[in-house]
Fold each of these.
Amino acid sequence: FNLYKSFVGWKVATFTKVARDFGLRRSKGVLLLGAPGTGKSLCAKATATALKLPLLRADIGALYGSFVGDSERNTREMIKMAEAMSPVVLWIDEIDKTMGSATAAGLTSDVTQRVIGTILTWRQESTAPVFVVATANRLDKLDPALMRPGRFDAVFWVDLPGKEERADIFKIHLRKKRREKLPWVTAKALTELAARSDGYSGAEIAEAVEEGLLEAFHRSGSVDRELAMRDIMLALTRSKPLSVTAEKELAAMREWLADKCRPVSSEGLLFEPPAAGERRRTVG
């Protein structure tokens, strides 16, 4: 996610007094779009770390109340809390499910419209140092008003990880399981695992490591057996990634996003159809 990291690095400066004196406005935030399991939530958490700010997670669905006026009041309270704790990163997860799907279908209620209107007005007019990171699975389901300039600084597409990124993901999850020092865990082995997991998301790779560990545990018996590379390879053969089960939807989304979003990785967005036998063609 090096391109996204660079972008956030530039935005750090907008929270300083020097930037204020220079005439820069504080950064508004970003919208992260991508298929489930590709690391949008991780990006949101990493953003707070990069900016060295506290992270608040907003549950938009919890804003809706049973009585008239509750939803609007809860929305205003959320905004007041975020501004009172500023500077802060406000993470709005799956914004398309709470502020988009009904709009796209033409079924938005008056309450939803008022909640959306309150948030949009706040994003447009607020000068408080609140950096919003919103995540969504489907950009085409969002209210078009969310995409108006001034609401977000940029829209990023979080694609499936490339080969080098998959190797890094395997390394991270093996380290989390305290298996990074096993003799077979070498750069070559990680590269082989990355090649075998073409088309897998970060979440699917994490699950493969978990299932591989389960395989090793059940087959150890009375023998002193540790996690082996073949256990993870076997786990990969047992599962079908999202790039296979939703291949057409993912390809259509990439094509639609070709000129609308920035990629988070320098491995890039590729929109040409994959070659025979490939789920996704990557660079590098």
Amino acid sequence: MSLAPHFDPAHIYARLDDLLPGRAPVLLGYSGGGDSHALLLIAAEWARARKREFHAVIVDHGLRQESAAEAQIARNAATGIGVTAHIANCPAYRGDGSGIQAWARAQRYACLAQRARDTGAQHILLGHTADDQAETLWMRLIAGAGYRGLAAMGEDDSFPIADMSDELRVLRPLLGVRRQALRDWLGAQNAQWIDDPSNEDRRHTRIRTRQALTRLEQGGFKAATLTGLAAQCRALKQATSQVAARAFLQVATLTQWGGIRLNADCFNALSRPVGRLVLEAAIACVTGAQGPLRRQGVAALRDGLIADLPATGAGAVLLSHRSEIWLVRDPGAVLGRVGEDPIPDLDLPSSATGLWDGRFSVKTRASHAVCVTSLGRIAPDNVPTDLDLSAIPPLARKTLPVAHRGGIILAIPGVVNHPDVTFVHNGAARARRCLFAGQAPAWFDDALHESGLLGSQ
């Protein structure tokens, strides 16, 4: 990847045109620092020219006494050029400091997600630069990441909170621009920005990485070496995802009640990288997982599938039922076990929507409130004797979600229907997010729509 020594805002205007179709509002994660301030100036001008609603979101993490004042300075900078700005305050940090940057990142995305819900925005701009990309790749390389981790950040990525719509995108139009080139351009505009003192705090891994890369560049190393490697790994990741998505449609058959029937012969014919991605997508389906899966758990399930043996891991169970191989939710994760509480019940008022166990969206049109729990927590006397669960592996039956009123069963997805309650299994959407860093291709979505497991809400 070639990195231009000088910054040309016209290139960013063109990228924004390509990355921001439609007419929905656009958000910018704005800190007042040099990178985000440069993007603010450019995106605000672009939005005015295109008559697009544009908001700056300033997250006050509350980690330093000066943060509130700095957030207000950032807000004034945005409003001063006619941009609507919103300050989001984070809850107090309760950790010991070792994971503070990961906590801050999670809080930023949570605040951005909420603002997207409030405004109807479908795109969030972030000011990550080529330097950020190089730092990310270097840290992951040292941590022993594979090609998927080394793909680092994309210019157009899914929003990293799984229960958000896939239509919400994270855009990084400055990813090919050097940090210093931005600052040189800002200086030429006589622009002012905030320098966060934490950017010099060597307690943080990223800061130590930044300083190490600066020393390497002074010795002749080029940042383009790292950003180029990230681009190659991203291309490999995208190609593998395409192959894995087609394989997933052959290997996995999703059910409305939340289990997946697996074709072991098809799975065993896959290459190891493709097979792992297919299995991760299947696990995400049955568990509702919203983040990285434990390697050991995935490996245990893979070994079991290859050896045709039962296995447990990553919140899922591999088993045989009626001479077929099934992947289902781990009952202990739903019903509780020593040291772990059961999945809490979900109380829904009339005409409400909720999420249960990360797996099922529940919508009620009832004139009365309903409760969603697992079948294993329903009193046996309230379970109809004619309830036919024979097609469902016995181990999975107690993990089934149940909408009930006063203990009387109203609905179980794929088993019992009720006009006042709609269950939608989110497995297909989880698979999409697991398989694709960007938006899924049309052929994959078409296959899921035909299965009745996507877009049926």
Amino acid sequence: MTSPNLPTETLLSEFCVTDPEFVDETGIARIWKVKRADKSFAAFKIYLGDNMKNEAPGFEFLRSKNGVGVAEIYQTNHNCALMEWLEGESLGDMVRRGGDQQAAIELIKVANSIHQDRPELAIDLPHLETWYENVFDLKYADNISQDVKDNFATCQHLADELFAQQRDVVALHGDLHHDNIKHSARGFLAFDAKGIVGERAYEIANAFRNPKGGDIYIQDPARFLYLVELWSKEFDVDRVRLLKWAIVKCGWSISRASDGLIKNHKDLDLLDMFIKTAKV
């Protein structure tokens, strides 16, 4: 990837950082490694538009944790964030080199660290229900099978059931998975939060279908059941509700990626496996 133009001197001065080194680009932002006034490194995330899109609440959530289980947030403005530099490997990297079970243990340790205080909802975050409004109001391409349609009907039914009576509603990271957790001098820490209010069990729902490049594990029904048992016990959430949230989140992700028109998606088989293995 060609390195983009450097951040402006005005922007670097605003955040009191120097020596930007391009690291990565996501769909909506670029990440730079920069040096702070005390010579320590930091991650500088600069959004490509004039705002942070739907990620702004995530920085409020991370800031509210004061570095407990998460990367510290040093400074933000309307479309930039300066945060703790995490030097080590991600849990996604750990999985991709063969350490899936160890990564699962480390992930739930991070989740517990983030939620150890069960904090009051002192920050203003969007509610999980808003993410799911009309998300399963889908259209299907002509080649889509009835089994796929039935699976999305199951997702809709489970979502209706779960939202009818959410339990243990707290502030959530909202996108806690293997590639959003990296090692640092302070241990494994989460970053790239979405910031949402919802049922605590939802916090780990997205991790079942992650990380990217870990298909040999993700598509294994035994792994799915192993994670359900491990995470429901260690995170102290209801096993069946966790199963259901994992299914709903998988269907939600497919729906969002498909813009409401289901043609073909690599996770359709994964959704089918989740539903059949869970036997809901």
Amino acid sequence: IKPQNIKAMPNDQVVLVDFGVAKEGSTGARTATGARGVTPGFSPPEQYSGSGSSPASDVYALGATLYALLTGIKPPDSVSLAIGEVDYVPPDQHNPAICSEIAAAITWAMQPKPVDRPQTVDEWQQRLLAVSEGVEPVSDEEEPESEIKAAPQAADQVVKPQPVPDP
């Protein structure tokens, strides 16, 4: 998933297109090593290494996509983040209209280590919904300490998506 895979139709419906490499089988299936496809800025580190992907990999891609849509800036490459080659700049530092809770949710989704991210899209969605409704998310687990930190900056609303240049 990346911004270029999201298309707005004339009837205001939003659809996903051009999946490239897709998983087959159950929802717990991992992408086969031979079926890897990566997009710098949107693919998590595990997709580069060939160790396969999981639902947490999809969360990374969704977080990176939201980062790009809300800032108009391509996210940093995940491998460069993982090895400390580049600094992570929280989305609310690029666009102060992004509320700090959304920025923190995006930062959580974009953790270089899969175990430090939400493990399912549903878990991450619950966090985003809680932010949009102004309530604390319900979670059985404590959110892990983040390797990349969101800046303590706040705004009162979520912003409209911004155009992102093609990668």
